[in-house]
Amino acid sequence: MRIYKVGGAVRDRLLGIPVTDIDWVVVGATTEEMLAKGFRPVGADFPVFLHPKSGEEYALARTERKSGRGYGGFTFHASPEVTLEEDLIRRDLTINAMAEDDQQNLTDPYHGQRDLEARLLRHVSPAFAEDPLRVLRVARFAARYAALGFTVAPQTLELMRQLSESGELEALTPERSWKEISRALMEDQPQVFIEVLRACGALKVLMPEVDALFGVPQPPAHHPEIDTGAHTLSVLQQAALHKQPLTVRWACLLHDLGKGLTPEEEWPRHIAHEFKGLKLIKAVNERFKTPRDCQELAMLVGEYHTHGHRALELKPSTLLELLQSFDVYRRPQRFEEFIAACEMDARGREGLEQRSYPQADYLRGAATAARSIAVQPLLEKGFKGPELGEAIKRERLKALKAYKEQV
Predict the structure, then answer these.
(1) What is the CATH code of the structural domain delimited by 119-206?
(2) pTM above 0.90, yes or no
(3) Mind spelling out the 3-state secondary structure of 106-147?
């Protein structure tokens, strides 16, 4: 039995960046031997075990063979005869196909270290094209390591293009797709993820609604960058720069989908794009079965982001309707995330990244004013049922009028 550290732990150590997860591969062992040493089995499809003390994953060296469509369409074979090189060749990228023993002696049969130095994301073997999930994974790695100068090797991008055109991407489950998308959006340069998907034709398969934004012009007076797709990528980049959570980043990606539906004869204006985009945002949410908090914020930002930009001009009654839509009384955090998404949208414009966004504090102040209305005094006056609701609304409107006047 020989044990090697593999994959990301080796890659990141060589890059000199913090190692977070460690994966191990065990060569020359059987399931029975692993169990005898106290390892706990967890793998459903192939033998993976948890270390009895550290809890880290140890997998028996294995080979795989394509047997069906999609990410799950593989037959695995694990046995003591499988070599380390045979295990490594089934991995996605050369930089993930290195191993080291307990003395840090490197096993690198597919030149991963060379590609690390060349800053290239390159596939290990033609078998790369058998797994559609790898299109998303490579795009995610491109986003993760973009700051270090990594790019996708042309031959690998071509294989990703072939996968995108093959129909295999449609075989991915929503859960697997969302796992990769959500992780990619939380990288430091998530816009690179979208750029790579677009470069290989995967974006128009997975998110045609986002792909449709490229080449659609906006009024240059408000959007110096003009192109709606370029603007969306800039908004996403700003969200990452400002360390926004996943909910905000997802909303930033989808906020302008309605502009992709504007007839060319109406360009560069996009009248009512907020409402037109809601059915598209809903469709994307359903396609990937996104978590409810991401779904809700994306829909609300899509519908109301222009309200956010015009906050200082809104009538008190419109402002109250906005606050009610977000249920700021019970869910203040969601409104805070809406404000963040609006600010990222405003900053995601060429040359305007550093411009202040006074609407943010104004909206926070409005929410505070509306929340300051106490219910108890109204109950003591005898209001109840629908009448109580109307009385609360009147008092909140009064508070917002006073707030607007003082600001």
Answers:
(1) 1.10.110.30
(2) yes
(3) EECCCCHHHHHHHCEECECCHHHHHCCHHHHHHHHHHHHHHH
